Every structure is written in structure tokens, then in C-alpha cells.
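User: two proteins, same treatment. go.

Assistant:
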Amino acid sequence: MIKLQYIFIFLFLFFTFNIYSQDTNLYQTWYLYQLEVDLEGVVWDIEDEQPNFLPSITINDDLTFDGVGACNGFYGYYTYNSSLNSLNPNDVVFTLSVCDTSEENNFEGSYFNYIEADTDHTITLTSYDDYDELRLENYPGYIAIYRSVSLSIAEKFINQIKVYPNPVQDKLNIDYKGSDFLTLNILDIRGALILENVTLSPTIDTSQLSKGLYFLEIKSDHGEMIVKFIKN
């Protein structure tokens, strides 16, 4: 009986270790560098596009993830397959705004189909002198390449904005160092528009929002970003 207990303990520790034994460099914000779709080849390359948005994904150490495409956000969680060194997405939720251009909508169609694909996303992590690179491949030919630093011109715009506190209760503060006009919208976790064209004053009254998860959509002539926040 004692030996059986040791066997159970060993198996528990073994599987626990394997669930969390992936490279800790995985846990960070990754900026999309290139997206390749089977039969179409490379459909998006940041060096060619130089978009005014910054597609990214943040993978946390509990394997929850969230990110943005062109004008919409998403979140979910991964399960880790140690034998394949792969991630499988679960319960992925997207906001449902219509982007400003057909190019942005087409990009999100490809990118979000890739993000939510219910299959193993094989991990390849490579470290270079100036950045880390993450390659996630689900079907042969369906590949997303991310880097730990961004080459996008939208990064300058994003670095000018600070949103706090998060979680929030009554007032959401927005510090913006730029001078151009901002358009602010708040969406719920289903992508439904809750508040439109919010006036930046520089606080947003969130006292009437129900508790839960929301997305703040911020747009200007120089870029777009989406910030996930929690109302307590």
C-alpha cells in the first residue's frame, strides 16, 4: 500500500512538472512579426505592412492569454502538451468590432482563425542577441512568428498611453502624452459596445459598469490599441 502511494505521488509530480516545464521565456508579451497561412503563403509581414496597429499576444505563467489583432481583443487559456511541446487554446473569446478597413478585417479573419484553432500549436523558442522569437505552428503551413520586441510604427503611439488602475472601481485613468484626438470605446467580453465615443477628461466613469472583464478600445490617427481591464 505504501509503495502504491509513492507511485501516485511520483506520477503526480511527474505530470505537474511536465505541465509547467516549458521554457519560462514563453511567459511574456509577444508581437506578431509574420503570419503564414497554408496554400496562401505569408499573408502578413510587419516589415512589409508597417501597420498603425500592433498585433500581440501575452502568455501568462498560468497559461491564460490575451491579445489584440487590428481593432479587436481576445483572451482564453492554453493547455500544455509536454510530449509534443505544444499549446492547445481553450474558451477563446473575441470582441466583435468592425475594423476601419477591409485590410484590417481580412487580417483579423486569418489571425483569429489561427488563434482559436482547436489543435496543438507546436512551440519553437529561439533567443537572439536583441530579442526572443516564438514560432507557433498548428497545421503544417499555418505559422505565426512573434518577437519579444516590436518593429511597428504603432509602438510609439502605444507607449504614449498609460491606463490605470486595473482592476478598477469607479474611475479609470488614462494618461496620454500625444496631442491628437482620441476615440474611446468600451466593449464587454462578448464584444458588445457598452460605451461609445467616451470623452477623455482624463478619467472614465466606470461606476455604472457591472463587475467583470471589459476591453477599452483606443484609436487615433497614429494608431490603435485595446486594453483589457477588470471592473471590481
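Protein 2:
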Amino acid sequence: MTRERYDHRDPWTTRDRLSARYETSLAAAEPIHRLWAAVTAHAEHAANGGDEYTTMTPTGEIHYRLLGQTFPRPTPQDLLDGLTLVDETRYHAERRELDLIDAAVAAGIGWQQIGVALGHTAATAERAAKARRAQLARLITQHETR
């Protein structure tokens, strides 16, 4: 079983490939990306006082010319909602990772292969994969009991 190496510099390649293959929508993640874009646009504008890429509208919104989009200034509640969404997204990702590890073990895939698939070197893969599985089980339990 070979695995295409995940490119950390281009995470959307893997997301797009999986979305196309499974025809799923990552709608839960989209609001956080829009909020992140708004926070980033406002931070970039503040850092360089406006430039050829960003302009501030009279209502305090930032217009990002490269994207052709206008971003409202995030409110404190927007930021708190974003943090809540990140926490929920992390929980669901960790739950899926744990389920995939357990399914791989049940399918007879060795811990070394699982560890390599999780991004570890062959020398540490087995130990790291078992440690990650234990960590995920603890995190899931903590999240579900709070």
C-alpha cells in the first residue's frame, strides 16, 4: 500500500481531491475560513496602512482587491464564535482520525504503516502511531465529558 505524501505547503490539494472523490461539502469549515480571511485582511491593512491590495471603506470594511472581496471588521462575538468553531472542527477531525486508525488496525494494517501515513519516519512510526491513538482517545473522552 503506497501513499501520496501530503504536501503541507498546499493543504487544499488533499482537501479538493477528497471532496471530489467523496462529493462532500466541508461547509462547517467554510465560515472559519471566511473569518480568517477577514482577520487577515484587517491585519494586513493595519500593518502597512493600506496599499495597492487593500483599501478601507467608509464603514470600516476592508476591500481586498486581489480577491475582489470586501471583509467586515470582525466583532468580538465573531472572534469568539470562530474559536468555538475551531474547537468543534478539531474535535471532529480528531474523532475521524481515531476512527480511521482503529479501522486500519482492524483491517490488518500494521502500526508502522499507520505511523508513516500519519507523517512519522519509519524509525519512529510504530511507537508514534500507538502514542497518537492513545492521545486521541484521551482528547475525545475529555471533549465528550465536558
